[in-house]
From TrEMBL:
Entry-linked NCBIfam families: uL22_arch_euk
Family stated for the protein in its record: Belongs to the universal ribosomal protein uL22 family.
Keywords: Ribonucleoprotein, Ribosomal protein
Superkingdom, natural source: Eukaryota
Name the record gives this protein: 60s ribosomal protein l17
BP GO annotations: cytoplasmic translation
Length: 148
């Protein structure tokens, strides 16, 4: 079954698509992480995510920043709030490594690849539950990750 993408591809020989469905990571943190990767080169994005995992660089929190602490590393992005979402970074890194492998198979130069389209969508809620305070229960929410 073919996967539909929310991006019009002009020349399919020059575009590499990769998608991760129903990843069990936080939507808000993954959205913030992916938004910093827009218009970056592939190798730059991979090195940035590796730095996020070892806490050398942070992910600036722009939209979902309520309750987030300040860090000096966020000044590189013109922000004050930042986090180091390891689980989201590992999930996105998995997609970028897949893009890297597809590029070598197609014969496309990896150094010239840029991330033009980055899309993070909420996946359907699953049966798993997160138990909260005062007897509340909320469903687990997964994420779809798409890169072109």
């Amino acid at each position: 079954m073919a996967i539909n993408f929310a991006y019009d591809i002009v020349d399919p020989t020059k575009v590499i698509k990769s998608q991760l469905d129903s990843a069990r990571v936080s939507f808000k943190k993954t959205r913030e992480t992916a938004s910093t990767l827009r218009k970056r080169s592939l190798l730059n994005a991979i090195s940035y995510l590796n730095n996020v995992i070892v806490k050398k660089e942070c992910v600036p929190m722009r939209r979902y920043a309520r309750g987030c602490g300040h860090t000096r590393q966020a000044r590189a992005f013109g922000q004050r709030k930042g986090r180091w979402p390891k689980k989201s970074a590992v999930a996105i890194l998995q997609v970028l490594e897949n893009i890297k492998e597809q590029a070598t198979e197609k014969g496309i130069d990896i150094e010239k690849l840029d991330l033009d389209h980055v899309q993070i969508c909420r996946a359907p809620k699953i049966f798993g539950r997160v138990f909260r305070a005062h007897g509340r229960v909320t469903p687990l929410i997964k994420v779809h990750v798409t890169f072109l």
